[in-house]
């Protein structure tokens, strides 16, 4: 174990040194991690970002694009031969074709390399020719990122926390009913173990559908090739004195195998190499789901920061080589609100991730929160209503395909109007009713040199990449 750890550390050190030499003397590489929880819009974000970097007519907020210093952009084969390629062309066709539709969501790690030929800025810019900057975009499910918390938890601690959460969430009662007559110290019965794992997975799916964010283990919801494996066939059980060969003892062993064989390799092979990171958050969906979902999202965001800035005593610090130095927390689906409400959504976003941002800022990472829409699916309009004016957004409804104008409710000026009831454990909002509509992507007619329409995608790109394009 010690020898293996030393070998892994030396290997990462050599990779870091050779990578630094390559970036300094040849062509710099920026590895951008894109993650977020279910339905936050990771696939759409990457597709629109790449399309708008290839055709930069809608990117005035990206200084290198606005000034014309980005002379060319082109896709290249990714450097990691064992990682699936992000299917940019198929996703772009889904969003911009004659019958536009949302592409399938992220279910595994994928990668894409976009190379930019950039003319340097500054006093010496006229003395040097353009250089090539490689942008390696790494797409991974946010559900996997949540598994970070398991690395420092024993099975007994995780099980106690998971059971406590289940008591207050949709679907939890159904899972807990499976434990009513269960003896954790009884001898392992594989069909029983599989039934418990399926019941726990069903509960996690119900909790996620209800707007809850912290649903671990993440691979239970996105198993991929591990579906049905022993590493995913366990569930939380009440604590008991469990002899060898018992159900509880075997579940604890499989939990440790999950951490060692699934969680650690992901962080070592993919996450530890990320330079910049965007975390996409469906804040509007959480608000619509109610105070418990908002509080769960706040705690989840604070926990996620541990992945980007592990402390010296954190187990993850032995896995991470270089550290992410810029992190953007982006509330997606800003096009579901009139622009007059965007500052309110940004303020709510900042308040939601304040604990997380404070930790990262303290450790030296630059962070920002903003409201964006990677692909704008609506237009705005204002109507007279009850003697006043009502700001609306209009789009094509995902269910039914009809055009509809929509006002989801006014977000509060003070984010504490949401966060305080959430922290106090209220079951529902007392003073507001926030609704969310599901819009289909709009049919687009793009002019030459234009990427898909968006809201503040250029500002997000400037924060994440602008300094590396100078």
Automatic annotation (TrEMBL):
<dbReference type="InterPro" id="IPR007413">
    <property type="entry name" value="YcjX-like"/>
</dbReference>
<protein>
    <submittedName>
        <fullName>YcjX family protein</fullName>
    </submittedName>
</protein>
<dbReference type="Pfam" id="PF04317">
    <property type="entry name" value="DUF463"/>
</dbReference>
């Amino acid at each position: 174990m010690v020898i293996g750890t030393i070998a892994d550390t030396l290997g990462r050190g050599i990779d870091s040194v050779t990578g630094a030499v390559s970036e300094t003397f040849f062509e710099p590489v920026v590895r951008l991690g894109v993650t977020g929880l279910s339905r936050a819009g990771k696939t759409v974000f990457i597709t629109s970002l790449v399309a708008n970097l290839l055709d930069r007519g809608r990117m005035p907020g990206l200084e290198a694009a606005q000034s014309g210093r980005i002379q060319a952009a082109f896709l290249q084969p990714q450097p990691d031969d064992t990682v699936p390629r992000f299917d940019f062309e198929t996703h772009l066709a889904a969003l911009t074709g004659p019958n536009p539709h949302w592409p399938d969501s992220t279910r595994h790690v994928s990668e894409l390399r976009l190379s930019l030929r950039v003319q340097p800025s500054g006093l010496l810019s006229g003395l040097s020719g353009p250089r090539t900057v490689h942008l390696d975009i790494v797409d991974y499910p946010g559900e996997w990122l949540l598994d970070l918390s398991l690395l420092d938890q024993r099975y007994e601690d995780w099980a106690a926390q998971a059971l406590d959460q289940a008591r207050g969430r949709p679907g939890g009662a159904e899972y807990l009913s499976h434990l009513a007559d269960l003896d954790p110290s009884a001898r392992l019965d594989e069909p029983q173990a599989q039934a418990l794992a399926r019941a726990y997975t069903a509960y996690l799916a119900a909790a996620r559908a209800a707007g809850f964010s912290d649903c671990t283990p993440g691979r239970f919801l996105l198993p991929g090739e591990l579906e049905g494996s022993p590493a995913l066939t366990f569930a939380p059980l009440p604590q008991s004195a469990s002899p060898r060969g018992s159900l509880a003892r075997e579940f604890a062993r499989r939990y440790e195998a999950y951490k060692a064989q699934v969680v650690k390799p992901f962080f070592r092979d993919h996450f530890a190499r990320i330079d910049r990171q965007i975390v996409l958050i469906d804040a509007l969906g959480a608000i619509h789901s109610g105070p418990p979902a908002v509080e769960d999202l706040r705690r989840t965001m604070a926990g996620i920061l541990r992945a980007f800035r592990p402390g010296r005593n954190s187990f993850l610090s032995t896995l991470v080589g270089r550290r992410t130095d810029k992190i953007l927390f982006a509330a997606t689906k800003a096009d579901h609100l009139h622009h007059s409400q965007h500052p309110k959504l940004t303020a709510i976003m900042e308040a939601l991730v304040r604990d997380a941002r404070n930790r990262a800022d303290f450790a030296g990472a630059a962070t920002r929160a903003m409201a964006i829409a990677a692909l704008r699916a609506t237009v705005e309009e204002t109507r007279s209503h009850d003697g006043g004016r009502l700001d609306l957004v209009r789009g094509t409804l995902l269910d039914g395909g009809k055009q509809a104008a929509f006002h989801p409710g006014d977000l509060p000026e003070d984010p504490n109007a949401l966060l305080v009831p959430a922290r106090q454990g209220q079951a529902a909002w007392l003073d507001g009713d926030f609704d969310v509509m599901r819009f289909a992507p709009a049919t687009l007619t793009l002019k030459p040199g234009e990427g898909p329409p968006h809201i503040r995608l250029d500002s997000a790109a400037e924060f994440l990449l602008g300094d590396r394009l100078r």
